[in-house]
Design brief:
The complex is a heterodimer.
Chain A (H helix, E strand, L loop, with lengths): L1 H21 L3 H21 L3 H25 L14 H23 L7 H24 L3 H22 L5
Chain B lengths: L1 H21 L3 H26 L2 H31 L13
Classes of the chains: A mainly alpha, B mainly alpha.
Chain lengths: 172, 97
């Protein structure tokens, strides 16, 4: 059952990703992206990352995608009805590059197939049972990774100030 | 399911790379970068089934950086649009060779 669900969501995610690359209008591209992000959140649930699935829906599919939509509508870009793909030698070069990347990745994953259940998976299941979905992440986040966590807060502050300065009308 | 998730993650990453390379609209290139970040997130979560919960903590950080990047990047796109009246990257000549 879980395997079937995984393949369904994987198909939706891949179709959405193709849509992002091929859609004519930016708004269409964005909606395909939302489909991809939502099905990725479902896959996160299947991989026992419940908290991150919720964050994926709230932060990515909610906040970031709405921000993109605001910018597309603010700049009035929803009316391009032809694809803006680069053509010719550049597209060919891109095909070669992604072909190489896909080949290397497929070779890696083909050689090193992982058989379940694994030690890490059992540790996560135990942590989930003991602390709950949020506590299992919060425990390492506030102990081992507390310095990166604080730095992340500073990064967000810098990003807010930077975005305000860049987008203000009189700044440039 | 870890292997399938890793294959899906690599496919999404490759598609995102292709989008960044071939699209001209700066916002869609940006969207494809988000797609790549999500592919990496999926790989982190798949590997966290193998290595323990640290992978999920890293995904948390990646999402924060992605949110910051989206805010700053879209602000840059808006200020570039004010200057050039377009978001087509072929028209951005100032920092090119």
């Amino acid at each position: 059952m879980i395997e079937v669900l995984f393949y369904v969501f994987a198909a939706v995610a891949l179709g959405g990703a193709l849509g992002v690359v091929w859609a004519k209008s930016p708004v269409g591209s964005l909606l395909y992206m939302v489909a991809t992000l939502a099905s990725l959140a479902c896959i996160f649930v299947l991989l026992e990352a419940h908290f991150l699935a919720a964050i994926q829906v709230i932060v990515y599919a909610g906040a970031i995608m709405v921000l993109f939509l605001f910018v597309i509508m603010l700049l009035n870009l929803g009316h391009d009805y032809q694809r803006d793909l680069k053509g010719g030698a550049f597209a060919l070069l891109s095909f070669v590059i992604i072909g190489l990347m896909a080949g290397i990745l497929a070779r890696q994953f083909g050689e090193n197939a992982i058989t379940e259940p694994t030690a890490g998976g059992r540790a996560i299941d135990a942590a989930l049972a003991e602390h709950g979905a949020v506590g299992a992440i919060a425990q390492p986040l506030y102990t081992t990774y507390v310095v990166p966590f604080e730095i992340t807060g500073i990064l967000l502050l810098v990003a807010i100030v930077g975005a305000l300065v860049l987008a203000k009308k009189s700044s440039l | 399911m870890i292997n399938e998730a890793l294959v899906l993650s690599s496919l999404l990453f490759v598609l995102g790379t292709f989008g960044v390379l071939v699209r001209r609209n700066a916002i869609i290139m940006f969207l494809c970068i988000e797609l790549q970040l999500n592919a990496v997130n999926l790989a982190f979560i798949a590997f966290s089934r193998l290595m323990g919960i640290d992978g999920q903590v890293f995904v948390f950080f990646v999402m924060t950086v992605a949110a910051a990047e989206a805010a700053v990047g879209l602000a840059i796109i808006i200020s570039v649009f004010r200057h050039y009246e377009t978001v087509n990257v072929d028209n951005f000549k100032l920092l090119r060779w």
